[in-house]
Amino acid sequence: MKPVVLTCGEPAGIGPEIAARAWARLADRVPMLWLGDPRHLPADCVHEVIDDPAQATDVSARALPVLAHPFAGDATPGTPDPRNAQGVIDVIARAVDLVQQGAASAICTAPIHKKALKDGADFAYPGHTEYLAALAGDVDVVMMLASDALRVVPATIHIALAEVPHALTPALLRRTIESTHAGLRDQFGVAAPRIAIAGLNPHAGEGGAMGTEELDWIGGLITQMQAEGYALTGPLPADTMFHAAARARYDAAIAMYHDQALIPIKTLDFDRGVNVTLGLPFVRTSPDHGTAFDIAGRGIANPSSMTHAIRLAHDMATR
Which residues bind substrate (predicted)? Predict the structure, then answer.
């Protein structure tokens, strides 16, 4: 099995330390390599610089394999250095090259800080997901947040709430449903995916009393896709579709906007949630948290989400 390539993420955040601690947990189970500047790893990280990704599988059992990518500056925990912004961006692109060339099996990305990248390198993308989609050839992608408790997909992602009703179209929702269905089937091994779809408005519009999108087109699209063979339910009130009994009735939920999706999974399983990008021509996962500048460098960051993200990337690539 080819290694999972771990991108360094923002060097001033917790990315380097949770990568080191995740490797310590998974060393004998998942081959991996870390892509970044070795100077940014914790001082106690057992690592070994390699020249070729093919060396990673043998090295991974005894040390974190590091494919060195020199950065312009050092890493000061909690304080991003603008000189490192371009390095962070370039590492992501290099990881994509490795997996597309077949040198790695999947990508697991450490958290980035969008403002630091914009300030230091004029980063033009709202986040990781959009940049990866561009690197893959401007493909249509969806962001899934996955854990043992819940899989959820927001139909719209990093936009202002006021823009959601305009951005949410029948074409977008159809693509989101199709991508989620394909991802569940092909990458999660769910033979006949069941997908629940939230309404846009409170109480799914309550018959038009609180909004009409559900009546105008969301319900009709769901009915049409049910006739095409998709196992869909909805539109459902978002406030009643995430308790335990409701979650047992579907394999993934599609929400209409960012917080409608992320609040339930971060409440249910904050430490083990994983960000999965569906629709890419390669496997990509990421821990479901940010750079945590406030605790960076203190050795107290929880590596559970990173550990689960690496394991899921390996499992999806194997599948």
Answer: 128-129, 266, 275, 284
Please give the C-alpha separations between residue 263 and each of 65, 79, 176, 242, 258, in angstroms, as whole numbers.
35, 27, 19, 10, 8
Could you tell me which residues are annotated as the binding site for substrate?
Answer: 128-129, 266, 275, 284
Single out the residue of 52, 117, 60, 118 nearest to residue 88, CA to CA.
117
Of 38, 34, 42, 37, residue with least CA distance to 59: 34
Number of other CB atoms surrounding residue 226 within 10 Å = 13
> Which residue numbers belong to the known binding site?
128-129, 158, 203, 258, 266, 275, 284
For 8, 38, 67, 237, the CA distances from 34, given in Å and listed in that order, are 7, 9, 6, 42
Q: Which domains does the chain have, with CATH numbers?
A: 1-139+280-319 (3.40.718.10), 141-277 (3.40.718.10)
Residue 32, φ and ψ in degrees, nearest 5: -150, 165
pTM: 0.89
Residue holding tokens 């009994």? Answer: 245
Best CA proximity match to 86, nearest among 31, 11, 159 = 11
pLDDT tens digits for 185-230?
Answer: 998 999 999 999 999 999 999 999 999 999 999 999 999 999 999 9
Cα–Cα distance, 174 to 172 (Å, whole number): 5
pLDDT digits (tens, 9 = 90+) for 45-87: 999 999 999 999 999 999 999 999 999 999 999 999 999 999 9
Q: How many of the other CB atoms lie within 10 Å of CB of 101?
A: 9
| Positions at the binding site for a divalent metal cation | 158, 203, 258
243 DSSP assignment:
S
